[in-house]
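User: Hi! I'm working on a homework problem where we have to compare a predicted structure to a textbook description. Could you give me the structure for the chain below?
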Amino acid sequence: MFGLEYFSFSAVWSPYVMISSLALIVLYLLITGPWRHKFKNSEPVPLRKKMYFIIGIAIFYFAQGGPLDLLAHLMFSAHMISMSVKFIILPPIILLSIPAWFYQAVFRASFFKKLSFIVHPIFTAILFNGLFSFYHIPIIHDAVMTNYSVHTIYLIILYISAFLMFWPVMNPLPDTDTLSGLKKTGYMFLNGALITPACALIIFSPTALYTTFTDPAEWAVMLGYCVPLDASTLLANFSGPEYFTNVTPLEDQQIGGVAMKLVQEFVYAFVLASIFAQWFRKESKKDKFDVQDKTSSLTNTLSDNRA
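Assistant: Happy to help. Predicted structure tokens:
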């Protein structure tokens, strides 16, 4: 399907990434289970959070080491879907799965206290969206995708920046969660606005921008980092990226840009809905306490008057 049948099991399913992903799940279950007592003020972790983590790691594996990762090296549209999954869908799921007591244990370290500025909303918004947009400048994208070491480093930095971007609206620690519901809403709208130029560049460009998905030689170099075949062998077996799709490079690019924007809009809308729900619950709880305080005050006043 989609040409995956031409590649070996290890190329499609990446056993090393699979084993690493399973190891992460086991480590998480140990930390939130038998090893939980090693953390101060730890509490039982709900099954819901554990399921979030397992689902998140499954998504990570599928996009980073599974079939979607290989497809992302065959077609630009799959590449953009992969980017959406890794940097837009994955971070909030993983952040939701981590218990607050684990965050408290980590952030107590003096090293993280000195780096508190990296979770400032303005910094996180500019960092992620800047790196993401910079990556999609054609000359930068092609250089990164055809240099394995640079690609790996840039990917790790993008992962970190994506998690940092979602942190201000998903922070479960009351003492550091300083943004009001209104500010969190504004923050998500800011992120949506900052990522739009990169999507617009991809969607509305009159020409195909990326040589790694238009030039067979460049494409073969990029794909060679994903499968155990050299560029000459790949070119001998496949004519180029057009071998795996019936659409033109420009159409493939436009599909990728639209897919990226739709995923971003859907996830940000979901996050905004969660912010509004939390905001509503908080205000309702506050109003309830205010009514109780006023009722108690009135009762005491009446009691004093009768006395």
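For your comparison, note the following. The radius of gyration is 24 Å. The chain has one domain: 4-296. Good luck with the assignment!
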